[in-house]
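During the no-cost extension, the postdoctoral fellow (Dr. R.K.) reprocessed legacy sequence entries with the updated structure-token encoder. One reprocessed record is reproduced below for audit purposes.
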Amino acid sequence: MRVKPIDWLALTLIIIGAINWGLIGFFQFDLIATLFGGIDAVASRIVYALIGIAGLYCLSFYSRLDNDSIISQDR
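Re-encoded structure tokens follow.
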């Protein structure tokens, strides 16, 4: 599977979102809201939207997985 720059960007945004959700879950601290001016700030909403779009884009990774290469790597 060839990795495109947009794949790296989407994965990075997903990781940022996952870290943010972990901080919310463990410490009730929203890092994105803190960095971008609150949960209702336009900048925060843009970042949340980009993370959401990245999550939807990453769903396409499932269809691009090559099961034969995964199986051959396990041998």
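The helical segments are 5-27, 31-36, 42-58, 60-64, 67-74. The mean pLDDT is 89. The remaining legacy entries will be reprocessed before the final report is submitted.
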